[in-house]
């Protein structure tokens, strides 16, 4: 289903607005899109690099810088350099208090607010605001690299994120000026990047092992009919590649006979050694020995020693995998695929441990630190409607409604509504004793149904005869995720009911949708004028009908003069109605209404006293 965006200022439209995929990571964030060759591709804005460290630094003017530029301040200005903000998203101080020591910046626990704030300089920031800074940077990079505005995104979150963490991510996106089309689970995105789940007939159970910089999680997913169900998740939000770096650092301090507390006081030295440790770790993913010197300090490490240093941590991740399988009630043999995600799975020892545990070679041919963003881009492409092979309906491209008096379109489900969706409205009859009601369903943006596309028509039959305006007919529209519209009409007093099913997208090409939207813009002004005239006419006609019936039925309560004067008002309303002038119609209708109001009250009083006479009051 195509998504078309219209620039309201110019009335022009853009058929293929790019929706980007964003991996908002604890350590690194990145953005990807689907390139013109239809392949997912990560964005490297003018060689600035693909990964943007998820770090924000504030200077004295409270101006923010993000990424590698901010990373440099980790040593020189740690109090105003915020990292790992993802761990604080949607969290209360209580949630993070146990780990507060690892944050070099100030986390505020104000009793008034359930959620944490972070202090930098003289200002307080919510994790949402800080995440928004990172997203703004990604948005700017994407716009610069793609040379087009980027307003919409799919953002990924860990599968274990709760509602408030997901909402916080959404809010961060909004704050960064992004319309967040969907929040997608990171393991789901990773599967999509490997092409798993794209074929709706495919049925698979997979394990996604994600070891990043500071967090580890494993998710067991069941994929069926293109739907991803998370069967179980497990992990540790304080376990990751940073722990490997720390283990190496401690090892070097010991080997060089240094005192950890002394080194720890020297921020610059600490940071230099930590970066050196990370470099060693990365090098050992492809070589057997690392050998460097920092001043007097020897930074030497061989692969075997490194593996001993991290063995216990890696074992912890395997225990988490066991627990996840147990929760999902599955054995390793029942896992069809294992996917590796996160930069730390580049370490061969980690890869091997995962392979040993699951008893099969994990999928690792896509860059583990890019795979989530690439999958998010694929999801974005599906939402943009560019993949007709997958039915992942998101919004309805045209409004759906019914015809009301005078041939007007009454919209029940508006264009761009998220599906599945449900909406309804109440209607009534316009003629006394009306027993049938014709319900015509239309699709389109024009005010007059005759300019829209007719989808179906049916009669609600068997409404008990009642005065006009008394029956209550509920019309409900139900649009399911497969794009099937169920229209239900029910008269509430009698319970008579009628229902039909329609497929609104049937036979509707992208070009048709486009044309319909363009037409609606072009005719917007004249449509509004017509609608107002029709509404005035309907109102006038309805009043005419009631007034004529009234003087006929209740002549006994009216004088000759009153009747003749009412008739004069009726005639001038009739003339106005044939004039097609909205204001005249409304004016004449008003006059008739005002003139007859006292009669109506009199009739009502008479009716009440008649009713009272029949009753004995003692
Ligand atoms: P996150 O999902 O937490 O944002 P990433 O998936 O980007 O994190 O992983 C970052 C971690 O991956 C860091 O600890 C980094 O040192 C580690 N890493 C990156 N490249 C390698 C490599 N070649 N070998 C081992 N670890 C690596
Ligand atoms: Mg990650």
Q: What does this molecule look like?
A:
The protein is elongated. It folds into four domains: 191 residues, ATPase, nucleotide binding domain (Nucleotidyltransferase, domain 5, 2-Layer Sandwich), CATH 3.30.420.40; 167 residues, 2-Layer Sandwich (Nucleotidyltransferase, domain 5), CATH 3.30.420.40; 123 residues, Substrate Binding Domain Of DNAk, Chain A, domain 1; 84 residues, Substrate Binding Domain Of Dnak, Chain:A, Domain 2. The protein has 16 helices and 28 strands. The strands form eight sheets. Strands 3, 4, 5, 6, 13 and 14 form a six-stranded mixed sheet that branches. The protein has a four-stranded mixed sheet with strand order 17-16-15-20, with helices on both faces. By secondary structure, the protein is an alpha+beta fold. The site of magnesium ion (MG) has 4 residues, from loops.
What would the keywords be for this entry?
618 residues; alpha+beta; Nucleotidyltransferase, domain 5; Substrate Binding Domain Of DNAk, Chain A, domain 1; 4 domains; six-stranded mixed β-sheet; four-stranded mixed β-sheet; 16 helices; 28 strands; 24% strand; disordered C terminus; binds adenosine-5'-diphosphate; binds magnesium ion; nucleotide-binding; hydrolase; EC 3.6.4.-
Summarize the SSE layout with pairings:
Blueprint: E1 5-6, E2 13-14, E3 19-24, E4 28-34, E5 40-42, E6 52-53, E7 56-58, E8 64-66, H1 68-71, H2 73-76, E9 81-82, H3 93-96, E10 106-108, E11 117-120, E12 123-125, H4 127-146, E13 152-157, H5 163-175, E14 179-185, H6 186-193, E15 204-211, E16 216-224, E17 227-236, H7 241-255, H8 260-265, H9 267-283, E18 289-294, E19 297-302, H10 303-328, E20 337-341, H11 348-358, H12 371-383, E21 400-404, E22 408-413, E23 421-427, E24 437-443, E25 453-460, E26 473-479, E27 485-491, E28 497-502, H13 510-522, H14 524-553, H15 560-579, H16 582-613
Parallel strand pairs: 3-13, 13-14, 15-20
Antiparallel strand pairs: 1-2, 3-4, 4-5, 4-6, 7-8, 7-9, 10-11, 11-12, 15-16, 16-17, 18-19, 21-22, 21-24, 23-26, 24-25, 26-27, 27-28
Helix pairs in contact: 4-5, 6-12, 7-9, 7-10, 10-11, 14-15, 14-16, 15-16
Protein name: Fe-S protein assembly chaperone HscA
Pfam families: HSP70
GO molecular function: hydrolase activity
